[in-house]
Amino acid sequence: QEYVLIKLQVLPVEEDGPRHAKMAKLLEMAGRDNKKIYFVPATLRPETMYGQTNCFVLPEGEYGAYTVDATEEIFIMSPRSARGLSCQTYQDGQYYTKEFGKIDCLETFKGDELLGLPLKAPLAKYEKVYTLPLLTISMFKGTGIVTSVPSDAPDDYVSLKALQDKADFRAKYGITDEMVLPYDVVPIISIAGYGEASAEFMCKKLKIKSPNEKAKLTQAKDETYLKGFTIGIMTVGPYKGKKVSDVKPIIRQEMIEAGQACLYFEPESRVVSRTN
Ligand code: ZZB
User: Fold this and answer.
1) What gap in Å lies between CA 93 and CA 218, rounded to an integer?
2) What protein family does this chain belong to (predicted)?
3) Considering 10, 39, 105, 223, which has the largest number of Cβ atoms within 10 A of its Cβ?
4) Which atom of ligand 1 is closest in space to residue 153's alpha carbon?
């Protein structure tokens, strides 16, 4: 599986409390070296980055901050994906890390400590988006971080909606109103019969109320994914009016060349026996 890692830059922390103390320290250290820190969600849909409203992390997940020598940056991701990346080349046969397979972990974080952080997301309409909790993240897929596009990803739509509708859910994870309420769904792709925000359309059509309605969400995801790719038309950005299938590789390449994204390969997620 070839994923695109999107680089969402960590902005100065906005709280004094203990949960962001480690990140504040890391930002200070990185600043001295002129380095930026990025959350790096893995996606197969780089053309949807115009619709980002937030970034999701698993509150119970284990994450780390890793040196990426090839770009002189710091990536926040799961330890598993950091190991994977360290065995991959960035450009010209150069590995992401100084040496093949050698990872440099600068700090470790529990997901909770990564919630409520302000980020700058490339191509997004919103100047600043926040990290929010998502309980259905798998730490065995991608980087364990997910960028949220509620217009086109049904999981993201119901999860953001749950946070917007439920003050107690926000309170439990230290999420303030400002981190979720101003973030409306951004329509980015028009699909005949599904409107300009297909995930919102499908969630309403299937009456999906909670992120735990797995079967319905899978159905909604499969349908919007397929339709978006086959008959979707961009409604924003420089490729407005063009077919998703035509511009997806172009947007992907442009983001990579602009340093807003990079590639990450992952073997099929099933555990392969070491003896076969
Ligand atoms: C942005 C986006 C926009 C996504 C969209 C989907 C959609 P797949 O096909 O199963 O590999 N994702 C990535 N990592 C994780 C994780 N660890 N746990 C849970 N979800 C994860 O799924 C790849 C997609 O699943 C990724 O692409 C990411 O969400 C999410 F409009 O990124 B996507 C209809 C889907 N639309």
Assistant:
1) 38
2) Belongs to the class-I aminoacyl-tRNA synthetase family.
3) 39
4) 36
pLDDT exceeds cutoff 90 at 267: no
- Report how far Cα 227 is from the mean position of its chain's Cα atoms: 22
Encoded tokens for 120? 């700058």
Reported ipTM: the value is 0.97
Residues with CB under 6 A from ligand 1: 42-45, 48, 137-138, 141-142, 144, 146-147, 149, 152-153, 221, 224-225
Residue nearest to atom 26 of ligand 1 (CA): 43
Tokens of 51: 């619709």
| Among protein residues, the one whose CA lies closest to atom 29 of ligand 1 | 43
CA of 271 to the centre of ligand 1 (A): 20
Q: Which of 1, 43, 208 best tests ligand 1's pocket when mutated (most atoms within 8 Å of CB)? A: 43
In a domain, 30, yes or no: yes
How close is the Cα of 43 to the center of ligand 1, in Å?
A: 6
C-alpha 123/C-alpha 125 separation (Å) is 7
Tokens of residue 210, six digits: 């909670």
- Tell me, yes or no, if the pTM score tops 0.90: yes
Q: Is residue 244 part of a domain?
A: no
**Which structural domain, as residue segments, surrounds residue 101?**
2-151+168-185+252-265
Instruction: Establish if 224 belongs to a structural domain.
Output: no
Tell the residue nearest (CA) to atom 25 of ligand 1.
43
Residue whose CA is at the smallest distance from ligand 1 atom 27: 43
pLDDT digits (tens, 9 = 90+) for 217-261: 999 999 999 999 999 999 999 999 999 999 999 999 999 999 999
CA 146–ligand 1 middle distance (angstroms): 7
Which CATH number covers residue 181? Answer: 3.90.740.10
Question: Is 70 contained in some domain?
Answer: yes
Look at the chain and report how many structural domains it folds into: 1
Tokens encoding 20: 């962001």
Q: Are 170 and 163 in contact (CB under 8 A)?
A: yes
* Residue-level pLDDT at 271: 55
Indicate the pLDDT class of residue 198, thresholds 50, 70 and 90: very high
Is residue 275 over pLDDT 90?
A: no
